[in-house]
Amino acid sequence: MSLWSLMGLYVASVIGAGFASGQELAVFFVNYGRSGLWGIMAAVLVLTLGSGLVLDYCASTNASSYAQIFARFHPRLRLLLDGLYSLFLLVGLGVMLAGIGAMGSTALSGLMLRLLTSMIILFVLNKGVEGVAKASSWLAPFLVLTMCGFAFFHFKSGKLAVPNQGSWRALEAGILYGSYNLGFSMTVLASIQSYISTRKERWKLALLANSALGICMVLLLLALSALDVEQLKTSFPLEHLVPGLGWAEAAYELLLWGAMYSTAIAHALALTNRIADTYGLSWNGAGSIIVLLSFSLSYFGFGPLIRIGYPILGLVGLWILANLAWDHVV
User: Fold this and answer.
1) CATH code: domain of residue 133
2) Are 42 and 176 in contact (CB under 8 A)?
3) With CB atoms 3.0 to 4.6 Å apart as the test, which of 23, 35, 221, 316 could cross-link to 170 if both were Cys?
């Protein structure tokens, strides 16, 4: 499998609905003014070091799932950590399907969007890790280039803004942002480590993929900083970068769908890998169970997960990073 495909799978797993909506960038970086740029640097550093260390750790211990990582970190707590993390991923997958359903203008169209996306996820998932990675090799560039294109379009209209004031709490926010995304991407990194043969390639993936994310984040921060406070408080701040353009509205809806799909397929891949390895089920059977359960959960909404789950996962990411760093030291 090509390094490009693996990079695409990792990048697609990081770019979720929060990223594509602009909400994450507004909350974690834009709200801190000029210091938000330092926050982005901190987040990219955490993601680069963390993803490289996860890949190295998985390669050295032959771990191919998040459950095996937990088992090696804390054997006594492995069942608890494995269960909680699996539940989090399952609910997260349901959240993405709920978001996709909410894109429909009616209950029927929302149901059709859920069903269609679930079928696409299952179709791609049944092709295994390689199939998911190949699909992500074109999806990730589309997501990144589309968002960068929105930023450049905004710049073209003369609305480039460099924040004047800032708060150094942006560093704290950037570290938390990088940590919870590391918590998400760990599942994908464990699944793909066997396809990377050398340590040089592992760190090349970590550096190039996270650099691409960092460049996109900087461009979007500069563009979003030109919006007023009320626009930043809306559900989709990013759409205000290209107002009143029919083609842009269609592109943005496709962008949102792609972002939620990319997070959903990453969660589904990790869970399918976990269940197939643990219970001896076929890959297709495990994938079908995961998609069916997440489809059912998608009707419960996602408020509690956003408010409580994401910060908790950020702390989990910090814990993982600390364990990986300690493992390399000793």
Assistant:
1) 1.20.1740.10
2) no
3) 35
